[in-house]
Write a structure and sequence with these properties.
This is DEAD/DEAH box helicase. By secondary structure, the protein is of the alpha/beta class. It folds into two domains: 266 residues, P-loop containing nucleotide triphosphate hydrolases (Rossmann fold, 3-Layer(aba) Sandwich), CATH 3.40.50.300; 163 residues, P-loop containing nucleotide triphosphate hydrolases (Rossmann fold, 3-Layer(aba) Sandwich), CATH 3.40.50. The chain has a seven-stranded parallel beta sheet, sandwiched between helices. β12, α13 and β13 form a beta-alpha-beta unit. α2 crosses α5 and α4 packs across α5. The longest helix is centred in the N-terminal third of the chain and has 17 residues.
């Protein structure tokens, strides 16, 4: 179980010359693979997956069976990761050889490591010129970018590769500086990367390995024009890999236009349920929904609660705090530092309830999270699957609970049918034993709480807030002990509410 969790969060690696093992040529302009790939039947709402023309290499049973740099194998061993997940075992022999890859797997199936190993391995040994990265990972959200970066970093260091993250909500000047200093691997959201290219701070003509992670969400979010514009700028003949939890028809354009005879591997159809995940639809009365939600939030243990809008998220968070529940909000209206701080507090347990919009539906990994609650039912089955994917990750068990009022029942039934899920449906009321049995719900303390910075966050805040301008520059030469003594004499800094 431990190995599996580490495996899923990890990502990365192998050496070689990118582009040296590719079959066929790719022109610089977009082209379609007409007449070269067959089409298979597909699940409802998905395009027919391309049929591989060139036979794929067989799957491996262990990372040690792959031709990877010794440093990467050593880093994997140090993390206790020796046995690949199915999507890794099937795709890595081919991606390490330079083949294009189309991989579909549910959240938690190990997609990040599947593309990360190949990307780092095929980039190892090369050095990027200023503003000219060699490998690119495109992701739809800041949170997913940070997760990919965190997973890749220790492995990138093992093969001496520099990695930088390019996302909105953070200093574009610092990101431009990192690119000027040279970065072999860039993990980016499409909008910010385009901004840096328009400023002249980045070029993609040396990118030999390109990955699209969660491509379907990028198309859903309206990034398709930016994604295609960026892909048209990468080096012709380079390797391209597309990984996603769902492959709807919006992604078909990307597959036909940019993947050449890809190796196709699918782990669990997008409509398939995770065997370790329970699905509950709880029928509630509208007047009792807020109380029911509060009791679930007051349970022992952490929970993510999803709502449709940031205003609804903020209102529920305030209500929970006023009722004694340690809650914090996460949505697109928060700055990136706020979002990062909130996630850190939730992962550490300093905050027990994360109230979020769909911004948290992908790209967030939290160990031992066993409950996700859809306070507002999702709008379609893809959103449901991705929200639920925050729990029951990498072999762990978990439950997804959706609160449904009478007027939402018909739409919810259709959604579940589209997702291929047969949930357990129960009529519940606040305070009832059945609600507690399913969710662990209990009465809240009713004593208002405020979320302040945990002790580990306070020292750097105290130091930065107490020294600015000329005084701050002079203070850089002080010893750690002197700084600590000065900080101890000041009033302790208290973080803002999450």
């Amino acid at each position: 179980m431990n190995r599996t969790r580490i495996n899923d969060r990890s990502a990365r690696t192998r050496s070689g010359n990118p582009g040296s093992a590719r079959g066929g040529n790719r022109s610089g302009s977009p082209r379609r693979a007409e007449g070269r790939v067959g089409r298979q039947t597909s699940p409802q709402g998905e395009f027919a997956l391309p049929k591989t023309v060139t036979s794929a290499l067989p799957a491996v049973e262990a990372f040690a069976d792959l031709d990877m740099p010794a440093q990467l194998l050593g880093a994997l061993g140090h993390e206790g990761v020796t046995v690949p997940f199915p999507i890794q075992a099937a795709t890595l022999p081919n991606s390490l050889a330079g083949r294009d890859v189309l991989g579909r797997g549910r959240t938690g199936s190990g997609k990040t490591l599947a593309f990360g190993l190949a990307l780092l391995a095929r980039t190892a040994g090369r050095r990027a010129e200023p503003r000219q990265p060699l490998a690119l990972v495109l992701v739809p959200t800041r949170e997913l970018a940070q997760q990919v970066t965190d997973a890749l970093t220790p492995y990138a260091r093992s093969v001496m590769l520099r990695l930088t993250t390019v996302v909105g909500g953070m200093s574009i000047g610092r990101q431009a500086g990192a690119l000027r200093n040279g970065a072999e691997v860039v993990v980016a959201t499409p909008g910010r990367l385009k901004d840096l290219i328009d400023r002249g701070d980045c070029r993609l003509d040396q990118v030999a390995v390109t990955v699209l992670d969660e491509a379907d969400q990028m198309t859903d979010m309206g990034f398709m024009p930016q994604v295609t514009e960026l892909l048209d700028q990468v080096r012709p003949g380079g390797q391209r890999m597309l990984f996603s939890a769902t492959l709807d028809r919006n992604v078909d354009l990307l597959v036909r236009r940019y993947l050449t005879d890809p190796v196709v591997h699918s782990v669990d159809p997008s409509a398939g349920a995770v065997t370790t995940m329970e699905h509950h639809v709880l029928h509630v009365h509208g007047a009792d929904k807020r109380r029911t939600t509060t009791e679930i939030a007051a349970r022992d243990g952490r929970v993510i609660m999803f709502l449709d809008t940031k205003h609804a998220v903020d209102r529920l968070t305030e209500h929970l705090l006023n009722n004694g529940v340690r809650a914090a909000s996460l949505h697109g209206g928060k700055s990136q530092p706020q979002r990062t701080r909130t996630l850190s507090r939730f992962k550490s347990g300093h905050v027990t309830v994360l109230v979020a919009t769909n911004v948290a539906a992908r790209g967030i990994h939290v160990d031992n999270l066993d409950l996700v609650v859809n306070v507002d039912p999702p709008s379609d089955h893809k959103d449901y699957l991705h929200r639920g994917g925050r729990t029951a990750r990498a072999g762990e068990s978990g439950s997804v609970v959706t609160l449904v009022t009478p007027d939402q029942r018909r739409d919810m039934s259709r959604l579940m049918a589209a997702a291929g899920i047969t949930p357990q449906t129960t009529q519940v009321r606040s305070g009832e034993a059945e609600l507690s049995r399913i969710t662990g719900a209990q009465a809240p303390s009713g004593v208002p709480v405020a979320i302040t910075a945990p002790p580990t966050e306070r020292p750097p805040r105290a130091a930065s807030s107490s020294s600015r301008g000329r005084r701050g520059r002079a203070g850089r030469g002080r010893s750690t002990g002197d700084t600590a003594r000065r900080a101890a004499r000041r009033p302790s800094a208290v973080g803002a509410a999450a």
